[in-house]
Every structure is written in C-alpha cells, then in structure tokens.
Amino acid sequence: MDAEDTRRIESKQVNFEKPHLIKDSVFRPVIPDYNGNRTLYFERTFACNCPETPTSWSFRVTFQRLPLSGVSCLIAIRRTDDRPGLVDVEFRMIIQPSSLTETFLLRFNSKIPAGRADRRIFPEVIPVKAVERLSGRYLHVELFLFVEGCHRER
Ligand SMILES: [Zn+2]
Q1: Are 48 and 54 in contact (CB under 8 A)?
Q2: pLDDT tens digits along 8-38
Q3: Which of 30, 103, 111, 132 has CB atoms 3.0–4.6 Å from 86's, for a disulfide?
Q4: What's the total number of domains in the chain?
C-alpha cells in the first residue's frame, strides 16, 4: 500500500441536530490495481455536537479488488467516546463515476456502545464488468453517517 492511498482530497463535516449527520466525500480513483491483495482505505474521526450525548466516531472504508468478483468494501465504524448507552447509526456510501449514469450503493445500520466498533463486508459493490471499465478513473465517493437515539425527541 503506498502513501497516496490514504490521502484525502476533500472533506466536509455537516452537523444537524436531528438526526446528526456526518458527511464526507472524496473524488479520486478508488478501484485498486490487480497487484496482489492491495487495498485502498481512508479513515476519519468526527465528533457529533449533541446537546445530551456528544459522541465521536471514526470510520474506515477499504476497497479490495478481486480478480473474478469485482470490488468489495469493508466498512469499519468505531465509536470513540465514553458516554453510556447505545446509539443508532446508519452508514451509507454512494459511488458515482463523473458521468452520473450509474451509481453503486451500500448501506448498513447498527447500534454501537461507547468504545466499540462494527465491521461489515459488502461483496461485489462494484461488479467485475464495471471494475474493468472504471479502473483508474476518478470516482465520486460520498459517505454519510447518521447518528440517532443519543437525545430525547422534542
Ligand atoms: Zn443527539
């Protein structure tokens, strides 16, 4: 893995009170080369400005290219604060070539206590035919982390 794999091109955090929403995006090639099991990942830590239970989060997305099954994604979300209680999170990722003619999506929901992480593997997020066509191209990747259940409804 070379150093460029973790370089961030663009980053924007947005906070709304209900639900809390963290948004992040990159525009770069994310489909790895065939060489071995090379993976591409990026990682970021965010804090939620909740009036009752301020939480903090980091997430990591690993793109892995496999010869016969396209690109799979490993998503790891970690809650890094020490406040008591479970908090609901929904993670969404949208991958789009600049032409906007096709979109690749994944989504997962979890309940995460303080100090814990949840990891999921999503096979064939980008099918093998699209991988061949899009390899080396810049792709828009948008990441959303919705955080709920950390404060009472008003
Ligand atoms: Zn809250």
Answers
A1: yes
A2: 434 455 556 667 888 888 888 888 877 555 6
A3: 111
A4: 1
Q: Which CATH number belongs to the domain containing residue 128 in this structure? A: 2.60.210.10
**Is residue 68 a part of any domain in this protein?**
yes
| C-alpha 21 to ligand 1 mean position (Å) | 10
Q: Which domain holds residue 24?
A: 18-148
Model pTM score: 0.81
**Residue 11 Cα, ligand 1 centroid: separation in angstroms?**
22
5 within domain boundaries: no
Q: What does each C-alpha distance from 40 to 8, 17, 64, 65, 139 come to in angstroms? A: 12, 32, 7, 9, 13
Residue 106 Cα to ligand 1 midpoint, Å, equals 24
Length of the chain: 154
What is the Å distance from ligand 1's center to 82 Cα? 15
Distance 64 CA to ligand 1 centre (A): 34
